[in-house]
Every structure is written in C-alpha cells, then in structure tokens.
Amino acid sequence: MKKNKAVITLLLTVILTGLLLFTAAVGWGEGKTGAAENIRLGLDLAGGVSITYEAVGEGTPSAEDMADTIYKLQKRVEVYSTEAEVYQEGSDRINIEIPGVTDANSILAELGKPGSLQFQTMDGAVVLEGTDVADAQAGSRTDEMTGTREYVVSLTLTDEGATKFGVATAANIGRQIAIVYDGEIISAPTVNEAINNGQAQISGSFTYEEADQLASTIRIGTLSLELQELRSNVVGAKLGEEAIATSLKAGAIGFVLVLIFMIAAYRIMGLAAGIALTSYVGLALGLLNGFDMTLTLPGIAGIILSIGMAVDANVIIFARIREELATGKTVRSSMKIGFQKALSAIVDGNITTLIAALVLSLKGSGSVKGFAQTLALGIVVSMFTALVVSRLVLNALYALGMQDVKLYGVAKEQKTLDFLGKKKLCFIVSLVVIAGGLALMGINAGSGKGALEYSLEFQGGTSTTVEFGEDMSIEEIDAQVVPVVAEVTGDNDIQTQKVAGTRQVIIKTKELDLAGREALNAKLAERFGVDETTITAENISGAISREVKNDAIIAVIIATVCMLIYIWIRFKDVRFATSAVAALVHDVLVVLAFYAVARVSVGNTFIACMLTIVGYSINATIVIFDRIRENLADMKKKDTLEGVVNASITQTLTRSIYTSLTTFVMVAVLYVLGVASIKEFALPLMVGIICGAYSSVCITGALWYLMKTRIVKKEA
Fold it and tell me: Which domains does the chain have, with CATH numbers?
C-alpha cells in the first residue's frame, strides 16, 4: 500500500513538474498562455514606449519643479511597470520609457495629458490647486441605506491642502465644488459636510472604469508643471536578441551544472533536490507570467539569489540527515529529524530576506521595486519546493526501496577548526580592504575621476538621435557604430536603442559639449554617410533621480532595522542581530571597494547587486547563528563558549562551501558567456558571493563571540 502511494506521489510530482516546464517552454492555445516568452521584459531586454513631454509656459522651469514632476511621474508610471524610467531631457523636457509596451497611443490615452488641475467653487473661486492633492485612488464602498456596492474616488490631501479644503467645505455645505482639468469640468461633487482630516471621497453613479479614469486624471493634474506631448516612439531593447539568447543559454548551463553537482554530492537526496529545483523553475516562470511582473537584469539577480536559497535549503536539510545517520539512526528516522532540525534555519533565513524584499517593494522605486518583487516571489517558491516538494520526492523514493544508507551518505566526523583563533587576522584583512577601497574612492573623487564609475543612469549625459541609410540590428549597431562613438567621445559606457519602424538610432553617451557633438556628427557622417543636419542631440539627466536614490537608501535602512528586530526576537539576543547587520555592512563595503578598484560601471544593476549581496549575506549568517543557538542549548559544563562557536562554524562549513559554490557557478557561467553589460552585472556579484561566504564563516561568529564575552566580563 505504501509502495503504491509512493509511486503515485512520485509520478504526480514528476508529471506536474513536466507540465510546468511544458507550459513555460510552449504555453497553451493560440496565445501560448503561460509561456515564458510572454513574460513582460524590461527596456534592457525587450524595449517599449518612449514618450517625451515638454513643459508649458513662459521661461525655463525651475530645477525644483522639474525634479518634483519627474519623481511624481516615476511613481505614476510604475502602474505600467516597476522598471519604467523617467528622466530630464534638456532644460524643459521629460522623457518617459515604459518597457513591455508596443502601442504608444494606448499609453498616451491612459496616461492622459499632464495638465493643470484646480478645485473651484461654482462662482469660480479656486480653493485647491492640483499640488494640494497627495493621491487619488479608485475604490468601492457599500451604501448603508441600500446595501448596494458603489464605486468612489478617494482623495488624500497634503497638510496644506487639508487645511484649505476644511475651510472651503465648511463654507460650501450643500453646494458643488468643481474639479477643473485644463479648463474643463471633469466632476462637480456636492459637499455634504465639512472635511477637515484631509481624506475625501467622490461618489456617484460610477462604473469602476469611470472612477479609475477620474482618479488617474486627478493624479496627473497634481504635477508641479503643465506638460504637453512632444513626441512618442516605440524603442527597441537596450540589449540585443543575441545577448538575451546568450543569457538564457548561460542560465540553463549553470542550472544543469548545479543539478549535476547536487546529485554527485548527495546521491539520492541530490536527485530529489534536482526534481524540486526543476519544479521551482517551472513555478517561478509561471508566477512571473501570472502576476504580470516585469523581468530585467536586476530581476534576474533576484531569481539567481532565490535559486541559491533553494539550493541552500536543500543542503541544510541533507547535512542534517547525514548527521543523524552518523549517530546510527535509521534512514526514515534520520529524514524525519533532519527536516525538523533544518526547519528553523531555513524559515529564519528566508523570512529575514523576505522582510527585506517586502520593505524594498513597498518603499523603493524603479529597479529597486522590481528586484524586490522578483526576489519575494522567488523566496516563497523556493521555500515551498525545498520543504514540500523535496520531502515528498525523498519519502517516495525511500518507499520505492531506496533505503540503503549508502544511497544517502553518512556525515564524517570533523575535526573542529579554530576559526576564532584567526579572528584578529580576519578583522585586519577586512579593515585593510575596506579602508583601502574608501581611500581609493576619496583619491578618485579628488582627482576629478569620480569616487565610482557612475553610469548614464546615475549621472546622465547626451542623447543623440541619428537616422542611418539602412536598417541595422542592435548587434550590428553595437559592432559597427558603438566603437566609432567610443573613439570620438572616449566613453565606454554607451547605450543604444532603435526606434521601431524607422532607421533612427538613439545613442546615449556621457555629456558632450558643442565641440564634442560636432565631432561626433562629423565622424558619423564620414563613416556611415548620414546627413549631419538631421542629427539631433539633447542633454539628459540620470534615469535614477535623487528622489529614487533617497527612496532606495531609506528602504534599505528600514529593511535593515526590520531584519535586526526579527533576528533579535527570534534569537532572544541583540548581539546576534547586531553582529549579523555588521557583517552585512562589511560585505557591502567590500563590494563597494571592488567597484572602486575595478572601475566597474555603477548603474541600475549596481543597486540590484548590492541588494542581492545583502540578502545572500544575511541568509548565510542566519544558518551559522541557528547552529550556535542549538549548540548553546546543549552546552555542557566542560564546553567553552569559544569551542561552541568554532564547532558551530565547522558543522555548517560544508553548507557554506556548497551553497556558495552552486550560486557562484550560476553567476560565473553568466559572466563567461554574457555580453559586456551582463559581465558588468555578474563580476561584482561573484565578488559578493565570495565575500558573503567569507564573512559568514570568519566574521559573524567572531563578532558575536567578542560582544558576548565582553558583556559577560563587564557583568562579572
């Protein structure tokens, strides 16, 4: 009976995994529902719509108004994609690039024309400006009298707006206050009572679509500037099809290598992990489709991290099973106990990273939000496959007769290594690397080179639009045009995009003065025969605005505090939390030092890389702390605290090596096979993986030990 049940379980798991992979590879029906090719891709992978707005009015807009408008538009277009980019072009233009969209007209119709908004009494007195409205959202409520559901628009006012609206509504009870957009009344609700709390609702016989459209128009009208559309284009991917195909190939090769390694290292348990990891891939791709998430290079970083965490969870479980087998327990008993003992480390590590992902998703903007959403999805799926799928498959294989201990392997007795004895050396090495990196950043900044090699996304530059005599692919542009541009400008950070349906190419470089622009135009005319008079150029701001950077910093700080509190509560010792965060900061600073030394371009992927390292670092640390906590509970009188810490690190050393190795292999294959932009993303990530493994083994336990012993001495 048990054998039949095991066969059914295994067959169902394999069939479901196969269906998930088939869905991801082929899809269902004419629309290929569920196919990976339908996943929405970012500007770097698939292109999208580019819309340029120009400020209306006399004179040049102030820098403050431009920055405020850019930030609000950034938050607004995240409705279409978290990876949308908004940046300044020239002195009075704003460019919006929305990935995964091919119909510019539909976006323009939905986004509307950003114009002026006012709230006016019926005699024409203005009581509110658009900038007094902080937010407007469509929603629903139940009518208390009739019990029917009706759709409403909820308004949130600024503090100043709330004060003004309180006075206006108190003086106009029973009268209408019109909402006027670009001189046209779009709604004229009647005031039922004085509204003093800054929260108001507009009700009426709305459909949801009508309420949503009204809310959207109000949000558009809250901009500091009135804008008019200047032009709109469909632009191609920043990375060509070859780069995408190469990345997919690299990912597949890396994944297969990880599966082979797991089977070689853990035998029958590795086979179970292979099935679970394969189901992870199918589920993750299906959910990316289902939730309509936008996948970009930073998103790929989130997936790589969650695959690493899925591997890590299996490694922790299998190590525990082997430890139980070493004590003479049966295979079935060892599997049961192994899963139980591994649970706390897996849950704590994943929840800690998930907390960070959720905070970054809620508080971050742009690529930070996209990375966080992809990571959160990956964490949930990886926990499910490790704790449920791996267990089901392993139990089924056991029931089918694979019960020999040799198929599982027994943990060998390890000599406890004296990690704490080397703590001073490790601390000195870390301090020298960090101090050297910071010093080099200071030297570079002082010499005018910049502390780091900031990319176009951070510092902006010049956007040049060129119409060539023939239509070229992005690969041909990269091979023929980019080297010519680099020769003239001396800039290696060059981005190119095709304008769909034309022979125009947008070339983004570092900021060029008039002489630089003329030299570039002349060279393009000489080499490619283009008409110089048709070439246009504008200076552009960085796509990552100051406000977006501030959002990212604030989100990381909040996430770090939340992780610290969680670890403190779970481990009942603030020293665990502070040493974990200290190691996290250590890893970030070491990778920052690498960026400074290697002069790797700092762009969108920089943020994703740093966030990946934060997640990886905290997860590795939690595993060791979980073992220290367990060993402290079993500590005997003859045991020393130093011995417990050394034993805990030694017991988890295999896990630290295997997890780091498998994650490193995934990224290394991307680096070896990838194009230049992929390499810039993968190289610092590899450094971060090595650093995370080093800090978890050599730094975190030592930090906790020092804080623990010093406080004990003071109390004594």
Answer: 2-24+239-407 (1.20.1640.10), 48-113+230-235 (3.30.70.3400), 117-222 (3.30.1360.200), 420-437+549-715 (1.20.1640.10), 461-540 (3.30.70.600)
